[in-house]
Amino acid sequence: MTTVDLQLLEEIKADQGITWSDAVTDSRFHTHIANGMAYIDKRLGEAGDYNTPGDARTLLFEYVRYARAGALDVFENNYRHIILDAQNTRRIARYGKEQPQAAL
Fold first, then answer.
1. What values do phi and psi take at 77, rounded to 5?
2. What is the pTM of this model?
3. From CA 73, how far away is CA 8, in angstroms rounded?
4. Less crowded by CB within 10 Å, the N or C end of the chain?
């Protein structure tokens, strides 16, 4: 199971306008965040960095927003361009690391 950083939990709750903490709310957010991380990691082909600004973090925040609204069925379609861009960026980076450096 994916562990959710407490700071990330609080940042996502604040982004959603949730300023209170109770066991039920925190549990729901934890579940949405863990599911979102697993979903995004699978699509990116590697673990995303959710603690620094970037595509993975943006996608996670939006995933949680859509999950809370019961609209996950449209999430991927609405964010496909970001998902594809993130996939391509990672593929290019991996390709660059795999290629032998040309002698100068």
1. -65, -40
2. 0.85
3. 24
4. C
